[in-house]
Design brief:
The protein is of the alpha/beta class. It folds into 2 domains: 152 residues, Periplasmic binding protein-like II (D-Maltodextrin-Binding Protein, domain 2), CATH 3.40.190.10; 225 residues, Periplasmic binding protein-like II (D-Maltodextrin-Binding Protein, domain 2). The strands form 2 sheets. A 5-stranded mixed β-sheet has the order 2-1-3-9-4, covered by helices on one side. Strands 5, 6, 7, 8 and 10 form a 5-stranded mixed β-sheet that branches. α2 links the parallel β1 and β2.
């Protein structure tokens, strides 16, 4: 072959390569997308660095994607989503609560994820997937991928128990031993119950007690087979809360202390012996283990009392939060991958290890985290769960109304019977 022919052939080959490279570059450029994510956790100082890290991990895995993570205020979050739905535009991905009325109301704007999760569905228990479906009915389709489970229970400071002459390795799980422990703590100059009558302390304690009242029959509250005013154990639970207040076992400054984050920080600083906290995110085993020492935190899920037919029941939300994909998204396939990334594999493991979230994903390695109290919690979760009764039929307005009534009963402004009647009125509006 002559030099001229070789030269021409070389030019043609070079031109072909250039064309291919340019073509690929054009295709790649066309595939560059931005995922907009709305979130009510992103501004939380305890969550933000970790979520930034996970977003970066996701963008490294998918270099053609840019994540636009937008923090939204929790108190306005679902109103903002409703406004986005009316305009039929907004985030590709939205953080949602499991089993909440606000989420179910947005059902028609949430993508069904059943086909997407099929290959790895078994990693997460069906109880969680059920709550991730609209109105807990799998026939309606799964609308979010669970990132966390949530629940409530009592943490206690073993060092303060020992200081008061109590056995730090014996949790005061029944009513009489709980009262006796509070009395000894108070006599030793230790605040028995951190928190008080303001906002969530009373709310979360009621949820713990209700787990023993209703147990596995809690779903009867949805159809009227179970009630409040007609249930002697529920009214007894209300009377127990009043008794704790009257005996001075709550923090004497509790009326002016917000639960988030003041009461949580007080317990973490050793300013009280018992705290009704959460299982995931904040005010939990992770935060208190780091602050008080991993070996210094005890746990029990509820207070056993004779009127309640169940014992040691763990108030539980099979889904705390999870990401859903919105129907108006033009990038639904990538949005589904993003929701998955936070719920399984490296993304989920990073989230749990850094934040103390309680993941429903059974494939994650939580034992390596090294928190003994987490083993205790896991034991209750395996055998004694009762789904949190308040998440079944309430939205934001009713949540606040119930919390207000819980405070009124403790301050003596309404009695246990009136409180139970108020609860029945709310429940009747949501019977299925």
């Amino acid at each position: 072959m002559s030099r001229t022919k070789k030269f021409v052939s070389g030019l043609l080959l070079f031109g072909l390569v250039v064309a291919m490279v340019c073509g690929l570059s054009t295709v790649n450029a066309a595939k560059q997308i931005t995922l907009t994510v709305w979130d009510f956790k992103y501004a939380d100082p305890g969550m933000h660095p970790t979520m930034v890290k996970i977003d970066n991990m996701f963008m490294q895995k998918y270099p053609n994607v840019k994540v636009n993570h937008v923090s939204q205020p929790m108190d306005q979050y679902y109103n903002l989503l409703r406004a986005a739905a009316q305009a039929n535009e907004g985030p590709d991905v939205a953080l949602l609560h499991g089993g909440r009325g606000d989420v179910y109301e947005l059902d028609q704007f949430e993508v069904k994820l059943d086909k997407y999760i099929k290959s790895w569905r078994k990693e997460i228990p069906e109880d969680s997937w059920k709550v991730a479906a609209t109105k807990r009915d799998l026939k309606n389709g799964i609308k979010l991928i669970p990132m966390t489970s949530q629940g409530f229970g009592f943490y206690y400071n073993k060092a303060l128990f020992k200081k008061a002459g109590l056995d730090p390795n014996v949790a005061p799980k029944d009513w009489n031993s709980f009262l006796a422990a509070c009395e000894k703590l108070k006599a030793a100059g230790i605040v028995p119950i951190t928190g008080g009558v303001r906002d969530y302390t009373a709310d979360f304690m009621f949820r713990c007690l209700a787990a023993n009242v209703y147990g596995k029959d809690v779903y009867g509250l949805q159809n009227g087979k179970q009630g409040f005013a007609s249930n002697a154990a529920f009214k007894k639970a209300a009377e127990m809360m009043v008794e704790l207040k009257n005996k001075g076992y709550f923090d004497p400054n509790g009326a002016s202390i917000p639960y988030f984050m003041d009461a949580i920080n007080n317990f973490a600083a050793g300013k009280g012996a018992i705290f009704c906290g959460l299982l995931s995110d904040v005010g939990n085993w992770y935060a208190f283990g780091n602050a008080l020492g991993k070996e210094n935190v005890g746990y029990f899920p509820t207070i056993n009392f004779p009127e309640a037919k169940n014992k040691d029941m763990q108030s539980f939300q099979p889904v705390g939060i999870g990401y859903g994909v919105m129907t108006w998204s033009k990038n639904q396939a990538m949005a589904e991958k993003y929701a998955e990334f936070y719920a399984r594999g490296a993304g989920a493991q990073t989230f749990v290890a850094a934040t103390g979230a309680l993941s429903p994903n059974t494939s994650l390695d939580t034992a390596s985290l090294g928190y003994p109290v987490l083993k205790d919690i896991a034991g209750y979760l395996k055998k004694n769960t009762s789904e949190d009764f308040l998440t079944m039929y309430i939205g934001a307005f009713e949540d606040e109304f119930i919390a207000a009534n819980q405070q009124l009963i403790i301050t003596g402004e309404i009695n246990p019977t009136k409180y139970a009647e108020q609860m029945d009125k709310i429940a009747s509006q949501h019977h299925q």
